[in-house]
Design a protein that fits this description.
Elements (H helix, E strand, L loop, with lengths): L1 E4 L8 H11 L4 E9 L4 E9 L6 H5 L4 E5 L20 E3 L2 E3 L5 E5 L6 H13 L4 E3 L20 H10 L4 E5 L4 H13 L4 E6 L7 H9 L5 E4 L6 H13 L5 E5 L19 H7 L4 E3 L1 H5 L11 H11 L4 E5 L20 H28 L2
Parallel strand pairs: 7-14, 8-9, 9-10, 10-11, 11-12, 12-13, 13-14
Antiparallel strand pairs: 1-3, 1-4, 2-3, 5-6
Bound molecules: phosphoenolpyruvate and manganese (II) ion.
Length: 374
């Protein structure tokens, strides 16, 4: 059961004390407090865990600090979408909103290689009015002899370039908890010219200790990739690990499933799950068509297959797209064959924005249909 307190209830106030005293004395019920910091107010959510069936919802709703009470299912307690649950979805980070209604494009380099390429990428994004990008510094590689990313060493020049080009959020994968401090120390030293969304890669979706470390900090939001060989439920529970540790600013990313059945694509594209994740949880949903499709092959209609896959996800309501571009894919140190070319950026952005508008139109169409049947 979830008790939501009146916005901005001071934690030391009399109504708060009275409410907590009552809740803490409920037999067999554990009480867990979760703070949600919004742009204009702080919401306190109190999770009542245990056998809550016998609890009287009206009685708890009558407590002085409580605004309303929601009966929640056991699954995805914090991030889930429960019955009668109209809590907001998403969050704002460094001036950029992430929710289940809007769209952010994160085009960029799979792996940071040279300052020249990073600058070319960011300059192009700035010219298109884009404020987000992807930049891999810590690369988890199948082969131990493959390039592992420039790591900590590239952070100063990547962050400085981002500041110069008005980039507000960089999606950056981390593979170890020490990387959080490396990123934080570097940003702090530079005066925070940009922001970082910590990415958990598909190989680490169930690295529970890494999830707990990331969940314990609230400075950076998280982009959690779906695990490549586990069920959707298991991946959504991985997201809940982050929230249960305190950080509910999580975007969930579909990136395809590893199965021979997906060939010749790199992974089996799973973007039909975009609306499913939005139905089961309140997380904004991202798609990664680059790592799903894995090439820039063109269909006979002249449209790259990776763009067709992107369109499918966005028309179905995806809220973010993570996509590989590279100024010189033949020189890229990681995943060159799937990187789109800089001269494809305009078309990509126009197509994606158009698909998002189509999703908005479809939503209106179905709402009208529902209204006419009532
Ligand atoms: C990536 O986005 O660079 C990446 C390695 O993706 P994934 O974890 O989905 O394979
Ligand atoms: Mn990659």
């Amino acid at each position: 059961m979830l008790a939501i307190l009146h916005p901005d209830t001071p934690l030391g106030s009399e109504p708060y004390r009275h409410t907590m005293e009552f809740l803490n004395n409920l037999p067999g019920i554990a009480v867990k407090v979760h703070e949600v910091e919004g742009a204009t107010q702080t919401l306190t959510e109190i999770y009542l865990l245990g056998d809550t069936k016998s609890l009287d919802k009206d009685e708890i709703e009558a407590l002085p600090a409580v605004e309303r009470v929601i009966r929640i299912s056991d699954e995805y307690r914090i991030l889930g979408r429960h019955r009668d649950d109209n809590r907001q979805s998403g969050f704002t980070y460094n001036g950029v909103a992430f929710n289940q209604d809007n769209l952010n494009i994160f085009a960029g380099l799979c792996a940071v290689d040279t300052p020249e390429h990073v600058n070319m990428m960011m300059k192009a994004l700035q010219e298109h009015g884009e404020v987000c990008t992807r930049m891999g510094a810590y690369k988890p590689r199948t082969n131990p002899y493959s390039f592992q990313g420039h790591g900590k060493g590239c952070l100063p020049w990547v962050f400085e370039a981002a500041g110069k080009h008005g980039i507000k959020v960089i999606a950056m994968e981390i593979t170890h908890e020490s990387h959080i401090d490396e990123i934080d120390e570097c940003l702090e030293k530079l005066g925070r010219p940009t922001g970082v969304m910590l990415q958990v890669g598909t190989r680490n979706t169930q690295n529970f200790e890494l999830l707990k470390s990331i969940g314990r900090q609230k400075t950076y939001p998280v982009l959690l990739k779906r695990g490549f060989g586990i069920t959707l439920n298991e991946s959504l529970n991985a997201a809940e690990y982050l929230a249960s540790e305190g950080n509910a600013n999580v975007v969930f990313c579909l990136r395809g499933m590893k199965t021979e059945a997906g060939q010749p694509h790199r992974n089996m594209v799973d973007f039909a799950h975009v609306p499913t994740v939005k139905r089961l949880t309140r997380m904004p949903v991202c798609i990664d068509p680059s790592h799903s499709v894995g090439s820039r092959d063109r269909a006979p209609d002249g449209i790259p297959e990776v763009m067709h896959a992107t369109a499918q996800g966005i028309v179905a309501g995806a809220n973010m797209v993570l996509v590989d571009f590279h100024p010189k894919p033949e020189k890229a140190l990681v995943d060159g064959p799937q990187a789109l070319l800089m001269n494809e950026l305009s078309t990509f952005i126009e197509d994606v924005r158009g698909c998002h508008e189509l999703w908005q139109k479809r939503r209106v169409l179905y709402r009208k249909g529902d209204a006419s049947q009532q």
